[in-house]
Structures are given as structure tokens and as C-alpha cells.
Design goal:
Blueprint lengths: L4 E3 L6 H17 L5 E4 L21 E4 L7 E4 L2 E4 L6 E5 L6 E6 L5 E6 L3 E6 L5 E6 L5 E6 L5 E6 L3 E6 L5 E6 L5 E8 L2 E6 L3 E6 L4 E7 L7 H4 L2 E4 L2 E6 L2 E6 L14 E4 L4 E7 L2 E6 L4 E5 L2 H4 L2
Parallel strand pairs: 1-2, 2-3
Antiparallel strand pairs: 4-5, 6-25, 7-8, 8-9, 9-10, 11-12, 12-13, 13-14, 15-16, 16-17, 17-18, 19-20, 20-21, 21-22, 23-24, 24-25
Length: 305
């Protein structure tokens, strides 16, 4: 499937519409665009306007409303997702260095972030307030994950340890030691078992109640999911990835690794390069190298049919 290019055009008057549309269509046609979607959130009377005579001969043009965001529409012989506008609900500031990992709690009410500033922070999704700052690691924190029941939070650090925290009061319940290198990934297998990996290529499986390592295997024997690694997340019919400072959304109709290679149907530019992403329902958490945590909302991730 081929996707039409997309653009928001600020439309205020009929003259403004004609001028911008004509110039934009020509620019997109020269750039090899297959089509153009214009989102009009200004004047209802402009919905049925037609551009200057002959403009449609350049490339197909479709006008839609902002409320249609996430709806797949036909543009010429292509399919296009109506663009994503102003998805950032809030920017969570408090970390003083790179944010390496973000993870939504199972109930979606909080989001945890791990940073090079050696802390893990827990934020309220409702108002953006920092609920807890978890301190104890002596080096950068590279990974964070919630237990399935949301009662525990695990973090992996450059200090070669995994810490397990109580989500209720932020206290450190366990310190798991044994890795020979920085712990770059943590993932709960269930409520009592945690898997962690380090930059030396080894993976350990831990019994959380006792704090004992059940077994250790070479890294190639255990593959962490890409979701746990923060490189891509499946959200309904879509695959959310990142590249540089861009959050990219792909239509994942194939369900295979080729989905991420498709042209994105929506994108959002973060204020700095992106370290990690995490999805929960219609929300996307983004960890940035600037130390910011972005809270994005895209209702069409779960609503698009």
C-alpha cells in the first residue's frame, strides 16, 4: 500500500485558501507526492470550496476536518491516514540528563522514566505531577518496567544492579546483583519473575521474592521484545517507532517486521533526539535525550477502524 503525503494548511479566507493550495500542490507535485490531505479546522463554509481551475490536475487533493484524525481515506489511488495534530498533552520536566526509558503502568494512570541522572521518576498521567523520585542507583538508569499487577517497578542501571521498587511508597524492595556489565534491559515475565540483560550479552532470570538468580544464559539465547527495548511498540492497527527526534506511526496491517519499513502515516517531532517510547492505549510516552518526558495522545490509535 502506498501512502499519500500529508500537510496541515492554515486556512482562514477563500483567497488564502486558493493561494496556499495552489502553491502547496505544485510544491508537492514537484517533490513526487502522490496526494495531499488538507485539514480544515477554521471555517465550515470552506469544506466544499474548490481550488483554482486546473489545480487538481497536479495531484489529488482531499479536504477533511480535524475530527477525522486517524481515519484512513482514499486520495487518488492511494490510502492516507488523516494527519495527527497537536498530540502532546504535556511535557514532564524534572530529569537533569538523558531519559533512557519510559513505561506506562498497567492501569495507564502513571508513567515511569529512567535517566542518566541516576533516578527513576513516577509521573501522574492526569496532571503531569512527579509522584515519586526513586534514588539508589549509583550510575545511569537504562531501563524501567512495571510488574503485570502494577505493584512493583524494576530498574536496570550502569552500576550493574537491578533494583525492584514498591510502587506504593517508592521504597527499594530488592537489589539484584550479579551482572558483569551495565544492565540495559529489564522485563517482568510474571509477578514473581524478572528477566534482565547486560551490555556483556548475558541474561539473568530472577526470583523476586527471594532475590535469587534462577539461571543465566547467553544473550543470544533469550531475545528481549522490541517493545521492552523501547525501539517499537504495537498499538492497535499501528506500529509506533522512533527515528532521531521523530515519533513515527506505521500502519501494521501485515504484522511482520516489514511494517516498520513502510512509509509512516503520521509523525511527531520531539524537542530533542528520542531515547525510548512506550505505548498504553491511546497514549505514547516519549523519553528524550534532553531529559524531557513527553506525554502524547492519539485517540485514533485505538479508535481507527
Amino acid at each position: 500500500m502506498v501512502y499519500a503525503q500529508q500537510l496541515f494548511v492554515g486556512i482562514e479566507t477563500e483567497e488564502d485558501f486558493s493561494e496556499k493550495l495552489c502553491g502547496t500542490v505544485k510544491d508537492f507535485a514537484r517533490g513526487g507526492a502522490l496526494g495531499l490531505v488538507i485539514v480544515n479546522d477554521f471555517d465550515d463554509s470552506l469544506d466544499e470550496l474548490e481550488g483554482p481551475e486546473g489545480y487538481s490536475a497536479e495531484i489529488p487533493v482531499v479536504m477533511v476536518r480535524g475530527a477525522d484524525a486517524g481515519r484512513l481515506i482514499e486520495v487518488g489511488n492511494s490510502s492516507c491516514l488523516v494527519p495527527w495534530k497537536d498530540p502532546c498533552l504535556m511535557t514532564l520536566t524534572g530529569h537533569s540528563d538523558y531519559v533512557r526509558s519510559v513505561a506506562f503502568s498497567p492501569d495507564g494512570k502513571t508513567v515511569a522514566s529512567a535517566s542518566d541522572d541516576r533516578t527513576v521518576k513516577v509521573w501522574s498521567v492526569a496532571d503531569g505531577q512527579c509522584l515519586q523520585t526513586l534514588q539508589g542507583h549509583s550510575s545511569s538508569v537504562y531501563s524501567v518496567a512495571w510488574s503485570p499487577d502494577g505493584k512493583l517497578l524494576a530498574s536496570g542501571s550502569g552500576d550493574k544492579t537491578v533494583r525492584v521498587w514498591s510502587a506504593e511508597d517508592g521504597s527499594c524492595a530488592k537489589v539484584l546483583s550479579g551482572h558483569r556489565g551495565a544492565v540495559t534491559g529489564v522485563e517482568f515475565m510474571d509477578g514473581s519473575t524478572l528477566v534482565s540483560c547486560d551490555d556483556h550479552g548475558s541474561t539473568k532470570r530472577w526470583d523476586i521474592p527471594s532475590g535469587n538468580c534462577r539461571d543465566a544464559v547467553p544473550g543470544e539465547k533469550f531475545a528481549f521484545s522490541k517493545a521492552a527495548a523501547g525501539s517499537e511498540q504495537r498499538a492497535g492497527r499501528f506500529l509506533v517507532t522512533s527515528q532521531g527526534d521523530l515519533v513515527l506511526v506505521h500502519l501494521a496491517d501485515g504484522g511482520g517486521p516489514s511494517d516498520a519499513k513502510k512509509a509512516p502515516v503520521a509523525s511527531f517531532r520531539a524537542p530533542s533526539p528520542i531515547s525510548r517510547i512506550s505505548c498504553r492505549g491511546e497514549y505514547i510516552g516519549v523519553g528524550c535525550q534532553s531529559g524531557a518526558v513527553l506525554h502524547l495522545r492519539a485517540a485514533w490509535l485505538v479508535e481507527a477502524g
